[in-house]
Design goal:
Blueprint (H helix, E strand, L loop, with lengths): L3 E7 L4 H11 L5 E8 L5 H8 L4 E3 L8 H12 L6 E4 L8 H6 L4 E5 L11 H8 L3 E8 L9 E8 L6 H24 L3 E4 L2 E4 L1
Parallel strand pairs: 1-2, 1-4, 2-3, 4-5
Antiparallel strand pairs: 5-6, 6-7, 8-9
Helix pairs in contact: 1-6
Bound molecules: glycinamide ribonucleotide.
Amino acid sequence: MSKLKIAIFLSGRGSNFEAILKNIETKSLDAKIECVVSNNPNAAGLNIASTYNIPTYTFSPKKFKNTEEYEEAILSKLSNHPIDLIVCAGYMKLIGPTLLNAFTNKIINIHPSLLPSFKGLNAQKQALEYGVKLSGCTVHFVDSSLDGGAIIRQVSVDVKEGDTEETLSKRILKQEHIVYSNVIQLFAKGHITIKNRNIIIN
Ligand code: GAR
């Protein structure tokens, strides 16, 4: 079976991207990263891509008239590659209709909370401030809402007494690095079926 062709979208550090790369290297993930797209020219994740000779495309949203034109520019670069799945890995920008229509049910995201709790920025800080005892991470399909698409898989992480945003984020991130590749592998093998909001994994 041919490998799943992925485009990674990121805005920052890129540790999820790197974990996916490592799982491809060790052959626990049957995928190939075709390219990396970023809305931030200074994203550290772009350097990781260069190390692996993976093509990168950087676009500054501010330089475009609107999201539609920004995403059309992205699409024109993506058309150079046979992309099966867009994997948002710390891509801190809402995906608009142009990309959603071109990749229906083919865009996934990872978020550092048990959705639908604590959407948006600084999810781990929100969880600590709320005082929850359990947090975690969620892999979900992307739709037009903020962190609101159908949930594919979640992993829970205990919140410990004395946790700071840093310690909790670190513990959640460790799980993110495992679960994201697991979900991509399920996608690669055709094991994920979407029934409205309900995801069936077989
Ligand atoms: C990760 O914790 C990811 O879940 C989060 O950004 C971090 C990116 O880290 N994403 C979101 O908050 C999306 N709403 P990374 O660049 O090291 O992978």
